[in-house]
Design goal:
The chain is an alpha+beta fold and about 90 residues long. Helix content is about 25%, strand content about 35%.
Length: about 90
């Protein structure tokens, strides 16, 4: 989760420049807005794969390598992480 704080200089004084944190990384307000705009974009059909599922249904999904590539483009190599928070079967 990100948070917006006022920047502190070495003396603990705050400035008028907001800083945004995502995990351990600090982003400027402009960088934060650029990331948010990119995340709100819809993926094109070239990113969506499909396969047959049980009961003759067709399911659509995004392949793992495409997700990794997009995350690397947005946050840089080693600039992001993931975790499974819930799994239902």
């Amino acid at each position: 989760m990100s948070k917006v704080e006022m920047a502190k200089d070495g003396n603990g004084n705050t400035s008028d420049t907001p800083n945004t944190w995502f995990g351990q990384c600090q982003y400027t307000a402009d960088e934060y807005q650029a990331v948010q705009a990119a995340l709100r974009q819809r993926l094109g059909p070239e990113y969506i794969s499909s396969r047959q599922a049980g009961g003759g249904q067709k399911v659509c999904y995004i392949e793992g390598h495409r997700v990794i590539s997009l995350a690397n483009e947005m946050f840089g190599y080693n600039g992001w992480a993931h975790s499974v928070t819930q799994q239902n079967v």
